[in-house]
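Cross-posted from the bioinformatics board.
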Amino acid sequence: MRGARRRDIGLLGLALLLVAAMSTALAVGPAHLSLSEIWMALQPAAGDSPARAILISVRLPRIVAAALSGAGLAVSGVLFQALLRNPLAEPYLLGVSSGAALGAVAVLSLGLTVGPVGLAAAALAGALIAIATVFRVAYAAGQLDTRVLILAGVVVASFFGAGVMLLLTLAEGRSARSALLWTMGSFGQASWQMNVALAAYSVPAALGAFGLSRHLNALALDEESAAHLGTDVERVKKTSYLLASLLAAAAVSVAGVIGFVGLVVPHAIRLLWGVDHRYLIPMSFLAGGSLLVLADAAARTVAQPLEVPVGVVTALIGVPLFLVLLRRGYARQPL
Amino acid sequence: MSFELGDAWFRYPRSDKPALRGVSVDIPAGSHTAVVGPNGAGKTTLARLLLGTLRPQRGYALFEGRSAADWPRREMAKRIGVVAQGGTPALPVSVTGFVEMGRNPYVRPWAPLGEEDRAKVSDALRRTNLQDLASRVVNELSGGEVQRAKLARAFAQDPRVLVLDEPTAHLDVAHEMEIFRLVRDFVDDGGSAVTITHSLHLAGRFADRLCLLADGRLEAAGSPPEVLRSGTLSRVFDWPIEVVALDHAGLTGLHVVPVDKSRSPDRSEEPA
Protein backbone atom coordinates (compact mmCIF):
# COMPACT_ATOMS: atom_id res chain seq x y z
CA MET A 1 0.00 0.00 0.00
CA ARG A 2 2.75 2.42 0.95
CA GLY A 3 4.57 1.53 -2.24
CA ALA A 4 1.49 2.28 -4.33
CA ARG A 5 1.06 5.65 -2.64
CA ARG A 6 4.70 6.53 -3.20
CA ARG A 7 4.33 5.68 -6.88
CA ASP A 8 1.12 7.68 -7.25
CA ILE A 9 2.90 10.69 -5.81
CA GLY A 10 5.82 10.03 -8.15
CA LEU A 11 3.49 9.91 -11.14
CA LEU A 12 1.93 13.22 -10.18
CA GLY A 13 5.37 14.73 -9.60
CA LEU A 14 6.55 13.65 -13.04
CA ALA A 15 3.43 15.12 -14.67
CA LEU A 16 4.18 18.43 -12.95
CA LEU A 17 7.81 18.13 -14.02
CA LEU A 18 6.76 17.84 -17.65
CA VAL A 19 4.55 20.94 -17.39
CA ALA A 20 7.34 22.83 -15.65
CA ALA A 21 9.90 21.70 -18.23
CA MET A 22 7.69 22.79 -21.11
CA SER A 23 7.00 26.17 -19.50
CA THR A 24 10.69 26.75 -18.84
CA ALA A 25 11.59 25.78 -22.37
CA LEU A 26 9.03 28.23 -23.70
CA ALA A 27 10.78 31.05 -21.86
CA VAL A 28 14.30 30.39 -23.14
CA GLY A 29 15.71 31.02 -26.58
CA PRO A 30 17.85 33.36 -28.62
CA ALA A 31 15.20 36.09 -28.68
CA HIS A 32 14.84 37.51 -25.20
CA LEU A 33 11.22 37.55 -24.04
CA SER A 34 10.23 38.43 -20.50
CA LEU A 35 7.64 36.33 -18.68
CA SER A 36 5.05 39.10 -18.94
CA GLU A 37 5.64 39.43 -22.68
CA ILE A 38 5.15 35.67 -23.03
CA TRP A 39 1.98 35.79 -20.94
CA MET A 40 0.54 38.67 -22.96
CA ALA A 41 1.45 37.10 -26.29
CA LEU A 42 -0.21 33.83 -25.42
CA GLN A 43 -3.58 35.38 -24.50
CA PRO A 44 -6.19 34.18 -27.00
CA ALA A 45 -7.25 37.77 -27.62
CA ALA A 46 -3.70 38.95 -28.34
CA GLY A 47 -3.20 39.98 -31.92
CA ASP A 48 -0.29 38.97 -34.10
CA SER A 49 2.99 40.12 -32.69
CA PRO A 50 6.61 39.07 -33.19
CA ALA A 51 6.60 37.53 -29.71
CA ARG A 52 3.52 35.49 -30.50
CA ALA A 53 5.04 34.32 -33.78
CA ILE A 54 8.23 33.19 -32.02
CA LEU A 55 6.33 31.33 -29.36
CA ILE A 56 3.68 29.66 -31.51
CA SER A 57 5.65 28.94 -34.66
CA VAL A 58 9.22 28.52 -33.40
CA ARG A 59 9.43 27.48 -29.78
CA LEU A 60 6.22 25.56 -29.16
CA PRO A 61 6.56 23.16 -32.11
CA ARG A 62 10.07 22.28 -30.94
CA ILE A 63 8.91 21.77 -27.37
CA VAL A 64 6.03 19.56 -28.39
CA ALA A 65 8.26 17.57 -30.73
CA ALA A 66 10.85 17.12 -27.97
CA ALA A 67 8.21 16.06 -25.45
CA LEU A 68 6.61 13.53 -27.80
CA SER A 69 9.92 12.11 -29.01
CA GLY A 70 11.38 11.80 -25.52
CA ALA A 71 8.20 10.18 -24.23
CA GLY A 72 8.13 7.78 -27.17
CA LEU A 73 11.80 6.86 -26.90
CA ALA A 74 11.53 6.15 -23.18
CA VAL A 75 8.46 3.94 -23.62
CA SER A 76 10.15 2.22 -26.54
CA GLY A 77 13.13 1.48 -24.29
CA VAL A 78 10.85 -0.04 -21.63
CA LEU A 79 9.22 -2.29 -24.23
CA PHE A 80 12.51 -3.46 -25.74
CA GLN A 81 13.99 -4.19 -22.31
CA ALA A 82 10.92 -6.24 -21.38
CA LEU A 83 10.68 -8.02 -24.72
CA LEU A 84 14.35 -8.93 -24.98
CA ARG A 85 14.69 -9.49 -21.21
CA ASN A 86 17.86 -7.49 -21.47
CA PRO A 87 18.61 -4.38 -19.40
CA LEU A 88 20.94 -3.05 -22.11
CA ALA A 89 18.25 -3.00 -24.77
CA GLU A 90 17.35 0.43 -26.10
CA PRO A 91 15.24 1.79 -28.96
CA TYR A 92 18.06 1.85 -31.50
CA LEU A 93 19.53 -1.56 -30.75
CA LEU A 94 17.62 -3.38 -33.46
CA GLY A 95 18.38 -1.16 -36.43
CA VAL A 96 15.55 1.39 -36.31
CA SER A 97 17.90 4.34 -36.11
CA SER A 98 20.36 2.97 -38.66
CA GLY A 99 17.52 2.38 -41.10
CA ALA A 100 16.18 5.88 -40.51
CA ALA A 101 19.66 7.35 -40.82
CA LEU A 102 20.22 5.59 -44.12
CA GLY A 103 16.92 6.97 -45.44
CA ALA A 104 17.69 10.51 -44.33
CA VAL A 105 21.36 10.48 -45.28
CA ALA A 106 20.51 9.12 -48.72
CA VAL A 107 18.24 12.09 -49.34
CA LEU A 108 20.66 14.65 -47.87
CA SER A 109 23.85 13.37 -49.44
CA LEU A 110 22.26 13.14 -52.85
CA GLY A 111 21.44 16.82 -52.42
CA LEU A 112 17.73 16.28 -53.04
CA THR A 113 15.53 19.15 -51.94
CA VAL A 114 12.59 17.56 -50.24
CA GLY A 115 11.92 19.83 -47.26
CA PRO A 116 11.72 18.73 -43.63
CA VAL A 117 8.59 16.63 -44.09
CA GLY A 118 10.07 14.77 -47.04
CA LEU A 119 13.21 14.17 -45.03
CA ALA A 120 11.20 12.76 -42.13
CA ALA A 121 9.30 10.55 -44.56
CA ALA A 122 12.56 9.22 -46.03
CA ALA A 123 13.86 8.48 -42.52
CA LEU A 124 10.61 6.76 -41.59
CA ALA A 125 10.77 4.65 -44.74
CA GLY A 126 14.32 3.55 -43.88
CA ALA A 127 13.30 2.72 -40.32
CA LEU A 128 10.29 0.70 -41.49
CA ILE A 129 12.46 -1.30 -43.89
CA ALA A 130 14.84 -2.15 -41.03
CA ILE A 131 11.95 -3.08 -38.72
CA ALA A 132 10.32 -5.29 -41.33
CA THR A 133 13.60 -7.03 -42.23
CA VAL A 134 14.43 -7.86 -38.62
CA PHE A 135 10.89 -9.04 -37.91
CA ARG A 136 10.84 -11.19 -41.03
CA VAL A 137 14.01 -13.00 -39.97
CA ALA A 138 12.98 -13.58 -36.35
CA TYR A 139 9.34 -14.52 -36.94
CA ALA A 140 8.79 -18.14 -37.93
CA ALA A 141 5.90 -20.56 -37.48
CA GLY A 142 3.82 -18.08 -35.53
CA GLN A 143 6.60 -17.43 -33.02
CA LEU A 144 8.88 -14.48 -32.49
CA ASP A 145 12.26 -15.80 -31.33
CA THR A 146 13.76 -13.01 -29.24
CA ARG A 147 17.26 -14.46 -29.45
CA VAL A 148 17.10 -14.34 -33.24
CA LEU A 149 15.47 -10.91 -33.01
CA ILE A 150 18.38 -9.41 -31.09
CA LEU A 151 21.04 -10.93 -33.35
CA ALA A 152 19.22 -10.05 -36.56
CA GLY A 153 18.59 -6.53 -35.24
CA VAL A 154 22.20 -5.87 -34.34
CA VAL A 155 23.41 -7.21 -37.69
CA VAL A 156 20.85 -5.22 -39.70
CA ALA A 157 21.87 -2.15 -37.70
CA SER A 158 25.50 -2.63 -38.75
CA PHE A 159 24.50 -3.16 -42.36
CA PHE A 160 22.51 0.07 -42.56
CA GLY A 161 25.24 1.80 -40.56
CA ALA A 162 27.74 0.74 -43.20
CA GLY A 163 25.43 2.18 -45.85
CA VAL A 164 25.40 5.51 -44.01
CA MET A 165 29.21 5.55 -43.84
CA LEU A 166 29.45 4.78 -47.53
CA LEU A 167 27.09 7.60 -48.48
CA LEU A 168 28.88 10.06 -46.18
CA THR A 169 32.20 9.14 -47.76
CA LEU A 170 30.87 9.70 -51.26
CA ALA A 171 28.89 12.87 -50.49
CA GLU A 172 30.12 16.39 -51.15
CA GLY A 173 31.34 18.49 -48.22
CA ARG A 174 28.21 20.53 -47.63
CA SER A 175 25.66 17.77 -47.93
CA ALA A 176 27.91 15.46 -45.93
CA ARG A 177 27.89 17.98 -43.08
CA SER A 178 24.12 18.35 -43.06
CA ALA A 179 23.77 14.57 -43.19
CA LEU A 180 26.19 14.15 -40.30
CA LEU A 181 24.35 16.77 -38.24
CA TRP A 182 21.09 14.96 -38.90
CA THR A 183 22.48 11.79 -37.36
CA MET A 184 23.31 13.70 -34.18
CA GLY A 185 19.73 14.73 -33.59
CA SER A 186 18.01 18.11 -33.50
CA PHE A 187 14.51 19.50 -33.18
CA GLY A 188 15.39 22.44 -35.42
CA GLN A 189 13.12 21.21 -38.19
CA ALA A 190 10.08 20.61 -35.99
CA SER A 191 6.79 21.94 -37.31
CA TRP A 192 3.15 21.59 -36.35
CA GLN A 193 2.62 19.44 -39.40
CA MET A 194 5.25 16.98 -38.22
CA ASN A 195 3.98 17.10 -34.66
CA VAL A 196 0.55 15.99 -35.76
CA ALA A 197 2.09 12.96 -37.47
CA LEU A 198 4.34 12.30 -34.48
CA ALA A 199 1.44 12.48 -32.04
CA ALA A 200 -0.68 10.26 -34.26
CA TYR A 201 2.03 7.60 -33.92
CA SER A 202 3.29 7.97 -30.41
CA VAL A 203 0.22 8.68 -28.31
CA PRO A 204 -1.77 5.59 -29.40
CA ALA A 205 1.40 3.47 -29.32
CA ALA A 206 2.18 4.59 -25.76
CA LEU A 207 -1.41 3.89 -24.69
CA GLY A 208 -1.16 0.47 -26.32
CA ALA A 209 2.06 -0.20 -24.44
CA PHE A 210 0.38 0.84 -21.18
CA GLY A 211 -2.42 -1.63 -21.96
CA LEU A 212 0.17 -4.41 -22.17
CA SER A 213 1.72 -3.61 -18.80
CA ARG A 214 0.28 -6.56 -16.85
CA HIS A 215 1.42 -8.92 -19.59
CA LEU A 216 4.89 -7.39 -19.55
CA ASN A 217 5.01 -7.93 -15.78
CA ALA A 218 4.10 -11.57 -16.32
CA LEU A 219 6.69 -11.96 -19.10
CA ALA A 220 9.35 -10.85 -16.62
CA LEU A 221 8.83 -14.28 -14.96
CA ASP A 222 9.21 -16.39 -18.09
CA GLU A 223 7.14 -17.09 -21.19
CA GLU A 224 5.58 -20.27 -19.85
CA SER A 225 4.50 -18.68 -16.57
CA ALA A 226 3.07 -15.71 -18.45
CA ALA A 227 0.99 -18.07 -20.60
CA HIS A 228 -0.38 -19.74 -17.45
CA LEU A 229 -1.38 -16.31 -16.14
CA GLY A 230 -3.52 -15.68 -19.22
CA THR A 231 -1.03 -13.91 -21.49
CA ASP A 232 -1.13 -14.69 -25.19
CA VAL A 233 2.67 -14.65 -25.23
CA GLU A 234 3.29 -14.52 -28.97
CA ARG A 235 0.73 -11.77 -29.51
CA VAL A 236 2.20 -9.67 -26.73
CA LYS A 237 5.76 -10.13 -28.03
CA LYS A 238 4.77 -9.23 -31.57
CA THR A 239 2.77 -6.22 -30.43
CA SER A 240 5.55 -4.96 -28.16
CA TYR A 241 8.12 -5.26 -30.93
CA LEU A 242 5.96 -3.34 -33.38
CA LEU A 243 4.90 -0.65 -30.88
CA ALA A 244 8.46 -0.16 -29.63
CA SER A 245 9.84 0.03 -33.16
CA LEU A 246 7.19 2.47 -34.35
CA LEU A 247 7.73 4.74 -31.34
CA ALA A 248 11.46 4.79 -32.04
CA ALA A 249 10.93 5.23 -35.79
CA ALA A 250 8.59 8.19 -35.29
CA ALA A 251 11.02 9.92 -32.93
CA VAL A 252 14.07 9.31 -35.05
CA SER A 253 12.32 10.48 -38.22
CA VAL A 254 11.45 13.84 -36.68
CA ALA A 255 14.58 14.50 -34.70
CA GLY A 256 17.39 12.24 -35.86
CA VAL A 257 19.31 9.97 -33.54
CA ILE A 258 19.05 10.95 -29.87
CA GLY A 259 20.69 8.42 -27.63
CA PHE A 260 20.44 7.61 -23.91
CA VAL A 261 16.80 8.61 -23.36
CA GLY A 262 15.51 5.12 -24.09
CA LEU A 263 18.15 3.47 -21.95
CA VAL A 264 18.58 5.86 -19.04
CA VAL A 265 15.00 6.99 -18.35
CA PRO A 266 13.43 3.52 -17.82
CA HIS A 267 16.28 2.44 -15.56
CA ALA A 268 16.12 5.62 -13.53
CA ILE A 269 12.39 5.09 -13.00
CA ARG A 270 12.99 1.45 -12.00
CA LEU A 271 15.61 2.49 -9.47
CA LEU A 272 13.34 5.14 -7.97
CA TRP A 273 9.90 3.52 -8.13
CA GLY A 274 10.30 -0.17 -8.93
CA VAL A 275 9.69 -2.47 -11.85
CA ASP A 276 5.89 -2.61 -12.18
CA HIS A 277 5.10 -1.75 -15.83
CA ARG A 278 1.76 -0.22 -14.88
CA TYR A 279 3.79 2.64 -13.39
CA LEU A 280 7.01 2.23 -15.34
CA ILE A 281 5.35 2.99 -18.69
CA PRO A 282 3.45 6.18 -17.82
CA MET A 283 6.33 7.40 -15.64
CA SER A 284 8.87 6.81 -18.41
CA PHE A 285 6.57 8.61 -20.84
CA LEU A 286 6.49 11.72 -18.63
CA ALA A 287 10.14 11.60 -17.59
CA GLY A 288 11.40 10.95 -21.13
CA GLY A 289 9.37 13.89 -22.40
CA SER A 290 10.69 16.17 -19.65
CA LEU A 291 14.29 15.13 -20.21
CA LEU A 292 14.22 15.88 -23.93
CA VAL A 293 12.37 19.18 -23.50
CA LEU A 294 15.01 20.34 -21.02
CA ALA A 295 17.86 18.94 -23.09
CA ASP A 296 16.58 20.74 -26.18
CA ALA A 297 16.20 24.00 -24.25
CA ALA A 298 19.81 23.63 -23.13
CA ALA A 299 20.93 22.69 -26.64
CA ARG A 300 19.39 25.91 -27.97
CA THR A 301 20.91 28.20 -25.36
CA VAL A 302 24.22 27.02 -23.91
CA ALA A 303 26.38 27.85 -26.93
CA GLN A 304 24.42 30.66 -28.62
CA PRO A 305 24.35 31.36 -31.49
CA LEU A 306 25.44 27.80 -32.15
CA GLU A 307 23.13 24.92 -31.40
CA VAL A 308 24.59 21.85 -29.69
CA PRO A 309 23.19 18.50 -30.92
CA VAL A 310 20.49 17.51 -28.46
CA GLY A 311 21.86 13.96 -28.24
CA VAL A 312 25.07 15.40 -26.82
CA VAL A 313 23.10 17.21 -24.14
CA THR A 314 21.02 14.15 -23.16
CA ALA A 315 24.21 12.18 -22.75
CA LEU A 316 25.96 14.96 -20.81
CA ILE A 317 23.01 15.45 -18.42
CA GLY A 318 21.61 11.94 -18.43
CA VAL A 319 24.67 9.85 -17.86
CA PRO A 320 26.05 11.49 -14.66
CA LEU A 321 22.54 11.62 -13.18
CA PHE A 322 22.05 7.98 -14.00
CA LEU A 323 25.38 6.95 -12.50
CA VAL A 324 24.44 8.63 -9.23
CA LEU A 325 21.10 6.81 -9.20
CA LEU A 326 22.75 3.52 -10.07
CA ARG A 327 25.21 3.85 -7.24
CA ARG A 328 22.52 4.86 -4.74
CA GLY A 329 20.06 2.26 -5.99
CA TYR A 330 22.41 -0.65 -5.58
CA ALA A 331 23.74 0.60 -2.27
CA ARG A 332 20.18 0.61 -0.95
CA GLN A 333 19.15 -2.66 -2.49
CA PRO A 334 22.05 -5.13 -2.40
CA LEU A 335 22.24 -7.58 -5.31
CA MET B 1 -13.76 -34.98 -17.06
CA SER B 2 -11.24 -32.18 -16.71
CA PHE B 3 -8.43 -33.51 -18.93
CA GLU B 4 -8.45 -36.19 -21.61
CA LEU B 5 -5.40 -37.33 -23.49
CA GLY B 6 -5.91 -39.72 -26.41
CA ASP B 7 -2.94 -41.46 -28.04
CA ALA B 8 -0.94 -38.27 -27.61
CA TRP B 9 2.49 -38.08 -29.23
CA PHE B 10 4.99 -35.29 -28.92
CA ARG B 11 8.54 -34.90 -30.15
CA TYR B 12 10.54 -31.70 -29.51
CA PRO B 13 11.87 -30.07 -32.72
CA ARG B 14 15.55 -30.76 -32.15
CA SER B 15 15.18 -34.19 -30.60
CA ASP B 16 15.29 -37.49 -32.47
CA LYS B 17 13.28 -39.34 -29.83
CA PRO B 18 9.64 -38.57 -28.98
CA ALA B 19 9.09 -37.28 -25.44
CA LEU B 20 5.61 -38.85 -25.36
CA ARG B 21 4.54 -41.82 -27.45
CA GLY B 22 0.89 -42.56 -27.49
CA VAL B 23 -0.29 -41.64 -24.01
CA SER B 24 -4.00 -42.03 -23.30
CA VAL B 25 -5.32 -41.01 -19.92
CA ASP B 26 -8.45 -39.44 -18.47
CA ILE B 27 -8.14 -37.16 -15.49
CA PRO B 28 -11.52 -36.81 -13.79
CA ALA B 29 -12.68 -33.61 -12.13
CA GLY B 30 -12.70 -33.57 -8.34
CA SER B 31 -9.67 -35.77 -7.88
CA HIS B 32 -6.02 -35.37 -7.08
CA THR B 33 -3.91 -37.12 -9.69
CA ALA B 34 -0.17 -37.52 -9.23
CA VAL B 35 2.07 -38.07 -12.24
CA VAL B 36 5.21 -39.99 -11.33
CA GLY B 37 8.08 -41.54 -13.21
CA PRO B 38 11.85 -41.38 -13.73
CA ASN B 39 13.65 -38.26 -14.96
CA GLY B 40 13.05 -37.82 -18.67
CA ALA B 41 9.90 -39.95 -18.64
CA GLY B 42 7.86 -37.14 -20.22
CA LYS B 43 6.05 -35.83 -17.13
CA THR B 44 6.60 -32.13 -17.84
CA THR B 45 5.75 -32.64 -21.51
CA LEU B 46 2.52 -34.31 -20.43
CA ALA B 47 1.70 -31.27 -18.28
CA ARG B 48 2.45 -28.94 -21.21
CA LEU B 49 0.01 -30.86 -23.40
CA LEU B 50 -2.66 -30.71 -20.69
CA LEU B 51 -2.09 -26.97 -20.35
CA GLY B 52 -2.07 -26.36 -24.08
CA THR B 53 1.35 -24.71 -24.21
CA LEU B 54 2.29 -27.60 -26.52
CA ARG B 55 0.02 -29.24 -29.06
CA PRO B 56 0.28 -33.01 -29.58
CA GLN B 57 1.59 -33.93 -33.04
CA ARG B 58 -0.65 -37.00 -33.03
CA GLY B 59 -3.68 -37.78 -30.93
CA TYR B 60 -5.46 -35.19 -28.84
CA ALA B 61 -5.28 -33.31 -25.55
CA LEU B 62 -8.56 -31.90 -24.29
CA PHE B 63 -9.43 -29.68 -21.36
CA GLU B 64 -13.14 -29.70 -20.54
CA GLY B 65 -13.87 -31.23 -23.91
CA ARG B 66 -12.01 -28.65 -25.97
CA SER B 67 -8.53 -28.96 -27.48
CA ALA B 68 -6.24 -27.54 -24.79
CA ALA B 69 -4.04 -25.60 -27.22
CA ASP B 70 -7.12 -23.88 -28.69
CA TRP B 71 -8.28 -22.40 -25.38
CA PRO B 72 -7.79 -18.65 -25.21
CA ARG B 73 -5.04 -18.29 -22.60
CA ARG B 74 -7.09 -15.85 -20.60
CA GLU B 75 -10.07 -18.20 -20.31
CA MET B 76 -7.81 -21.08 -19.40
CA ALA B 77 -6.07 -18.98 -16.75
CA LYS B 78 -9.43 -18.40 -15.07
CA ARG B 79 -9.87 -22.16 -14.75
CA ILE B 80 -6.37 -23.57 -14.22
CA GLY B 81 -3.77 -22.31 -11.76
CA VAL B 82 -0.24 -23.53 -12.46
CA VAL B 83 2.77 -23.94 -10.22
CA ALA B 84 5.55 -24.45 -12.77
CA GLN B 85 9.24 -25.10 -12.34
CA GLY B 86 11.23 -21.90 -12.74
CA GLY B 87 9.34 -18.66 -13.24
CA THR B 88 10.88 -16.72 -10.38
CA PRO B 89 11.12 -13.05 -11.32
CA ALA B 90 14.45 -11.71 -12.55
CA LEU B 91 13.51 -8.30 -11.13
CA PRO B 92 12.66 -7.38 -7.55
CA VAL B 93 8.91 -8.03 -7.18
CA SER B 94 7.11 -8.10 -3.83
CA VAL B 95 5.20 -11.18 -2.75
CA THR B 96 1.95 -9.21 -3.00
CA GLY B 97 2.80 -8.01 -6.51
CA PHE B 98 3.68 -11.58 -7.46
CA VAL B 99 0.40 -12.97 -6.14
CA GLU B 100 -1.59 -10.11 -7.72
CA MET B 101 -0.45 -11.42 -11.12
CA GLY B 102 -2.90 -14.24 -10.48
CA ARG B 103 -5.66 -11.70 -11.10
CA ASN B 104 -4.33 -10.84 -14.58
CA PRO B 105 -6.97 -12.91 -16.41
CA TYR B 106 -9.77 -11.07 -14.62
CA VAL B 107 -8.66 -7.47 -14.95
CA ARG B 108 -9.21 -5.42 -18.09
CA PRO B 109 -6.04 -3.97 -19.63
CA TRP B 110 -6.29 -0.40 -18.40
CA ALA B 111 -8.21 -1.03 -15.17
CA PRO B 112 -6.75 -1.23 -11.66
CA LEU B 113 -7.44 -4.18 -9.35
CA GLY B 114 -10.95 -4.11 -7.88
CA GLU B 115 -12.25 -4.95 -4.42
CA GLU B 116 -12.87 -8.58 -5.33
CA ASP B 117 -9.35 -8.94 -6.74
CA ARG B 118 -7.80 -7.61 -3.55
CA ALA B 119 -9.97 -9.92 -1.47
CA LYS B 120 -8.86 -12.96 -3.51
CA VAL B 121 -5.22 -11.93 -3.17
CA SER B 122 -5.36 -11.52 0.59
CA ASP B 123 -7.30 -14.77 0.90
CA ALA B 124 -4.59 -16.55 -1.12
CA LEU B 125 -1.86 -15.04 1.08
CA ARG B 126 -3.69 -16.16 4.21
CA ARG B 127 -4.26 -19.72 2.96
CA THR B 128 -0.56 -20.11 2.22
CA ASN B 129 0.43 -18.36 5.45
CA LEU B 130 2.35 -15.64 3.64
CA GLN B 131 0.76 -12.53 5.20
CA ASP B 132 3.89 -11.72 7.17
CA LEU B 133 6.06 -11.95 4.05
CA ALA B 134 3.70 -9.94 1.83
CA SER B 135 6.05 -7.00 1.34
CA ARG B 136 9.24 -9.07 0.97
CA VAL B 137 10.92 -9.44 -2.40
CA VAL B 138 10.26 -12.82 -4.04
CA ASN B 139 13.81 -13.54 -5.14
CA GLU B 140 15.02 -13.09 -1.56
CA LEU B 141 12.72 -15.78 -0.16
CA SER B 142 13.71 -19.33 0.74
CA GLY B 143 12.83 -22.20 -1.61
CA GLY B 144 9.83 -23.24 0.44
CA GLU B 145 8.49 -19.70 0.62
CA VAL B 146 8.84 -19.23 -3.15
CA GLN B 147 6.81 -22.39 -3.78
CA ARG B 148 4.15 -21.16 -1.36
CA ALA B 149 4.09 -17.82 -3.18
CA LYS B 150 3.59 -19.61 -6.51
CA LEU B 151 0.78 -21.64 -4.98
CA ALA B 152 -0.76 -18.45 -3.56
CA ARG B 153 -0.65 -16.90 -7.04
CA ALA B 154 -2.38 -19.99 -8.44
CA PHE B 155 -5.06 -19.71 -5.71
CA ALA B 156 -5.55 -16.04 -6.56
CA GLN B 157 -6.52 -17.15 -10.07
CA ASP B 158 -9.60 -18.68 -8.40
CA PRO B 159 -9.15 -21.85 -10.45
CA ARG B 160 -11.09 -25.09 -10.42
CA VAL B 161 -7.96 -27.03 -11.38
CA LEU B 162 -4.39 -26.84 -10.10
CA VAL B 163 -1.48 -28.19 -12.11
CA LEU B 164 1.80 -28.44 -10.22
CA ASP B 165 5.14 -29.43 -11.74
CA GLU B 166 7.45 -30.74 -9.03
CA PRO B 167 6.15 -28.28 -6.44
CA THR B 168 8.30 -29.78 -3.69
CA ALA B 169 11.64 -30.18 -5.48
CA HIS B 170 14.47 -29.11 -3.13
CA LEU B 171 12.08 -28.65 -0.19
CA ASP B 172 12.57 -30.12 3.26
CA VAL B 173 10.07 -32.49 4.87
CA ALA B 174 7.97 -29.82 6.56
CA HIS B 175 7.61 -27.68 3.44
CA GLU B 176 6.89 -30.75 1.35
CA MET B 177 4.07 -31.78 3.69
CA GLU B 178 2.75 -28.23 3.78
CA ILE B 179 2.43 -28.05 -0.02
CA PHE B 180 0.81 -31.48 -0.37
CA ARG B 181 -1.61 -30.63 2.45
CA LEU B 182 -2.63 -27.35 0.76
CA VAL B 183 -3.25 -29.15 -2.53
CA ARG B 184 -5.20 -31.93 -0.80
CA ASP B 185 -7.40 -29.34 0.96
CA PHE B 186 -8.01 -27.60 -2.37
CA VAL B 187 -9.27 -30.90 -3.84
CA ASP B 188 -11.34 -31.70 -0.75
CA ASP B 189 -13.02 -28.29 -1.15
CA GLY B 190 -14.23 -29.32 -4.61
CA GLY B 191 -11.24 -28.58 -6.85
CA SER B 192 -9.09 -30.88 -8.97
CA ALA B 193 -5.32 -31.17 -9.05
CA VAL B 194 -2.61 -32.76 -11.13
CA THR B 195 0.76 -32.95 -9.39
CA ILE B 196 3.98 -34.03 -11.03
CA THR B 197 6.29 -35.29 -8.33
CA HIS B 198 9.29 -37.46 -7.54
CA SER B 199 8.00 -38.11 -4.05
CA LEU B 200 6.40 -41.52 -4.58
CA HIS B 201 5.28 -41.98 -1.04
CA LEU B 202 3.69 -38.53 -0.66
CA ALA B 203 1.99 -39.12 -4.02
CA GLY B 204 0.67 -42.38 -2.58
CA ARG B 205 -0.60 -40.67 0.55
CA PHE B 206 -2.09 -37.47 -0.86
CA ALA B 207 -3.30 -38.42 -4.35
CA ASP B 208 -6.42 -40.33 -5.33
CA ARG B 209 -4.92 -41.59 -8.56
CA LEU B 210 -1.43 -42.11 -9.88
CA CYS B 211 -0.13 -42.12 -13.44
CA LEU B 212 3.25 -43.78 -13.85
CA LEU B 213 5.14 -42.64 -16.93
CA ALA B 214 8.27 -44.25 -18.28
CA ASP B 215 10.09 -43.47 -21.50
CA GLY B 216 7.17 -41.49 -22.93
CA ARG B 217 4.60 -44.20 -22.27
CA LEU B 218 1.96 -44.67 -19.61
CA GLU B 219 3.11 -47.69 -17.63
CA ALA B 220 0.33 -47.82 -15.10
CA ALA B 221 -2.60 -45.74 -13.91
CA GLY B 222 -5.02 -46.19 -11.07
CA SER B 223 -5.31 -45.97 -7.30
CA PRO B 224 -2.06 -45.86 -5.27
CA PRO B 225 -2.14 -49.59 -4.39
CA GLU B 226 -2.69 -50.44 -8.05
CA VAL B 227 0.30 -48.43 -9.26
CA LEU B 228 2.77 -48.60 -6.38
CA ARG B 229 3.93 -52.20 -6.82
CA SER B 230 7.42 -53.34 -6.12
CA GLY B 231 7.85 -55.13 -9.45
CA THR B 232 6.58 -52.29 -11.62
CA LEU B 233 8.51 -49.59 -9.78
CA SER B 234 11.76 -51.59 -9.74
CA ARG B 235 11.53 -52.16 -13.47
CA VAL B 236 10.54 -48.60 -14.38
CA PHE B 237 13.12 -46.88 -12.16
CA ASP B 238 15.72 -49.57 -12.89
CA TRP B 239 16.43 -49.92 -9.19
CA PRO B 240 15.20 -52.38 -6.57
CA ILE B 241 12.26 -50.81 -4.74
CA GLU B 242 10.18 -52.32 -1.97
CA VAL B 243 6.62 -51.22 -1.19
CA VAL B 244 5.72 -51.68 2.46
CA ALA B 245 2.22 -51.36 3.84
CA LEU B 246 2.52 -49.00 6.76
CA ASP B 247 0.30 -49.13 9.81
CA HIS B 248 2.02 -47.44 12.64
CA ALA B 249 0.82 -45.02 15.29
CA GLY B 250 -2.32 -44.21 13.36
CA LEU B 251 -0.47 -43.78 10.06
CA THR B 252 -1.72 -46.02 7.34
CA GLY B 253 -0.55 -46.12 3.75
CA LEU B 254 2.07 -47.45 1.45
CA HIS B 255 5.71 -46.78 1.99
CA VAL B 256 8.02 -46.85 -1.00
CA VAL B 257 11.54 -47.82 -0.01
CA PRO B 258 14.46 -47.93 -2.44
CA VAL B 259 16.88 -50.70 -1.52
CA ASP B 260 20.56 -49.99 -0.96
CA LYS B 261 22.09 -52.23 -3.61
CA SER B 262 25.60 -52.27 -2.12
CA ARG B 263 24.28 -54.07 0.94
CA SER B 264 22.22 -56.94 -0.36
CA PRO B 265 19.31 -57.29 2.05
CA ASP B 266 19.60 -60.36 4.23
CA ARG B 267 15.98 -61.10 4.83
CA SER B 268 16.64 -63.90 7.31
CA GLU B 269 17.76 -61.39 9.95
CA GLU B 270 14.71 -59.17 9.60
CA PRO B 271 12.22 -59.36 12.42
CA ALA B 272 9.02 -60.99 11.32
